[in-house]
Structure formats: structure tokens, C-alpha cells
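anyone seen this seq b4? input:
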Amino acid sequence: MRKTTLLVLTLILIAIAILAIIMLLSSMDSFRVRSVTVSGIDSIPSGVRDVLSACQGVNRFRLDEKAIERELEAQPLVDTARITYSFPADMLVTIVPSSEHCLLFDGSQYYVLDEQGHPVLIGASDGIEGQAGLCTLEVESSFISYLSSYGAPASFRQLLDLVDRLWQSGGMLISRIKYDNNTLGGSGQLVLSLSPLNCELYVREPVSVDRISDSLGIIQAAVAEDPAGRIGFDCVRWDLYSDALVRRTVDRNG
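predicted toks r here
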């Protein structure tokens, strides 16, 4: 019994000592955050900047790093965020940019869908223009208005996933991807601009990523076999259906 009581008292004294040390450190000016360095992302989004600016000058022992990380990870362009320190109080923030979000671009502004499928505007200060390689789908501004009112249906979310996988696998061939929601079938169609090949691929019907990738290989091979076709026509258009790939050409003088 005496040993148990002694052990409990010892643990209580240790806890009190730790608490006293934390209280002492949290009152010392030398542990106020002096600088914040962000790595892992080319341009710091304004939302991230706002979160971190609130940490400047605050004693590091008064900050809830896990809560700050969760707040950073709630930003649309951030996948994960980790906070460490360089002694005594230089904050180091490592960010892994989100690779899951396909951005929507209406010709003037960028958006990303939230969990409810509504578009969230990404401000110009978020540095989108300076970040190469981000998956971007061009849409009409009227479609952004539709998404704002009704949210994105499951079919469009699946299409965004397809576009993202296509963007990652398309390499340097795909320069732009546009979405045309004004089609008779109501499901919309994708238009892939293939600038290196001077042509466009219209995805007329729902198909898989593999089907599109195979079509890109066929188009690339066709251009290699007939390089003069890139000069003799203003643009070659290919129409992709579930069971066919059709080449169409537009004469410059037509």
C-alpha cells in the first residue's frame, strides 16, 4: 500500500513539474514564433497564408499544431500539412499539394468543388497561374452557376476523376481539356486539345481512360505516318465514340 501511495505521489509531482515547465515556457518571449517557412508548394495560397499569419508572434507552446494542420488541410489546394520547429521558435510548415482536385476554369476564374459538389472560388492570390501541372477542366460560366445552385451530380464527379487520371497519363500531348455540357444527350462531352499534334479529340460518348489513352496512341501514330497532314490542314479533328474513332479534317481554305 505504501509503495502504491508513493508511486501515485511521484506521478502527481512529475505532472505538476511538467505543467509548471510548460507554463514557464509559454510565458517566455524567446518562444514566440519569429518566422514561418513554407516548403513543398510553389506559391502559397491566400487561405494558407491567412492561417499561418495568425501564428506569427504567438508563443509556440500556446499553439495547437494539430488543429492548425487540420485547418491547413481543409484548404482546397492542400493535401497534407506538417508543422515542426527550428529551435527556439522558427516554424517550419511542410505542405503536400493536393493531387486529387481537378480545377474548373470558366475563362477568368478558377474553382474547386467542395464536398457537397459546389464550386469554391480560388482567388488570384492563391498563385494558381504559377503552379504548373495542375489538372484543369475548362467549363462555361453558366455551368459554374448551375453547380452553385444545384451541386455537381455523381456523373460529373466521375468525369472529373476521369479527367484527372487522363491528365496524369496524357503527358505532353494534352494541352487543354474542355467540357461541353450543351449536348443533346445531357451527359456532356470532353474536348481534348492536342497542340503538339495540331488536332483535337472530341469524346462524344462515355468511355474509359484506357479507351481515350489508346485513341491518343492511334492519333499520334497517324500523325507520325502523315506529318504533312499537320501542314495541309488548319486542324484535324477526331471524334471518339464507344465503338469507333473517326478522323475529320478542316481545310484552311474551306
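The chain has two domains: 29-97, 103-251. The two ends are 101 Å apart (CA to CA). kinda curious what u guys think
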